[in-house]
Design goal:
Largest sheet: 7 strands, mixed
Strand content: over 45%
Number of helices: 0
Number of strands: 11
Order of helices and strands: EEEEEEEEEEE
Shape: globular
Distance between the termini: 40 Å
Radius of gyration: 13 Å
């Protein structure tokens, strides 16, 4: 059974940083794309970033480009999201997800097979 467990969320002031982790189990992690999505209160879930098994084909939403960085350690079955220069608009529940997805479709949440439970990130002004 595939499981994804996020950690690292919390409360941070605007301009600060957080690093989220997502540990996967139950499949050969390195063969699949890994993505991060977020959902703010009253809003739809939105794509943040994703990359493929090699760490290549990395894509970012325009809203986080230059501030967020995705990375992965296949040996540890873990993907990370380094978030810098956080702003209040980044406040959301952050989810990691995995699937066998072409890079062209990384932003399509319905194509991901498995999701974590989410971790709350709150950025105060």
């Amino acid at each position: 059974q595939v499981q994804l467990v996020e950690s690292g969320g919390g409360l941070v002031q605007a301009g600060g940083s957080l690093r989220l982790s997502c540990e996967a189990s139950g499949r050969t992690f390195s063969r699949y794309a890994m993505g991060w999505f977020r959902q703010a209160p009253g809003k739809e879930r939105e794509f943040v970033t994703a990359n493929d098994w090699s760490g290549g084909n990395t894509y970012y939403a325009d809203s986080v480009k230059g501030r967020f960085t995705i990375s992965r350690d296949n040996a540890k079955n873990t993907v990370y999201l380094q978030m810098n220069s956080l702003i209040p608009e980044d406040t959301a529940v952050y989810y990691c997800a995995t699937g066998s997805i072409s890079a062209l479709y990384y932003s399509e949440s319905e194509l991901y097979d498995y999701w974590g439970q989410g971790t709350q990130v709150t950025v105060s002004s």
